[in-house]
Design goal:
Layout: H1 16-25, H2 31-37, H3 42-63, H4 69-93, H5 97-104, H6 116-156
Helix pairs in contact: 1-2, 1-4, 1-6, 3-4, 4-6
């Protein structure tokens, strides 16, 4: 089903603030996509699976002193899921209310009136997304250069 229906078989309206809050507070979980598209959405399930694999990858990396390649692949999947969720929050949060209502509330006539809370969610998503991106890149480059130094040390001995 595209929309959630209540016990009286009425279509429930989709609120932009709730979507943005789910994307900001639970990034990568896919709950914001489940809210919009329903439980049958493949992308939401892939988000959830990627986040789970990312957590598993980080645990592998911590346990192996950052040396397991599979841990890096899994951590990258979780990283991509979190970044995609935050980017989706920004894109949908900045969408005009008329366009949002035409796509998600056309069956029930509900009119969104997003205010400053949606903009605050978008700003926070941008800040957190940028921080996660920079942190991920810094860790990846650091580990790359450490491995290069270790390889050069082995060659010189």
């Amino acid at each position: 089903m595209r929309f959630i229906q209540n016990q009286y078989n009425e279509v429930m309206p989709k609120n932009k603030l709730l979507f943005c809050a789910l994307g900001l507070l639970l990034p990568g979980s896919g709950l914001n996509v489940f809210y919009l598209k329903g439980l049958s959405n493949l992308w939401a399930w892939l988000h959830m699976l990627s986040l789970f694999l990312g957590i598993l990858g980080v645990k592998l990396l911590i346990a192996s002193d950052m040396s397991v390649a599979l841990g890096w692949v899994f951590a990258a999947l979780g990283f991509i899921s979190i970044e995609a969720s935050l980017l989706t929050t920004i894109v949908y949060g900045l969408r005009p209310d008329e366009k949002w209502d035409a796509q998600f509330n056309s069956d029930n006539g509900y009119q969104n009136q997003s205010g400053w809370l949606v903009i605050i969610c978008v700003i926070a998503s941008l800040m957190i997304g940028a921080a996660v991106l920079m942190s991920g890149l810094a860790i990846a480059f650091e580990q790359h250069f450490i491995s290069q130094f270790e390889a050069a040390r082995k060659i010189s001995q």
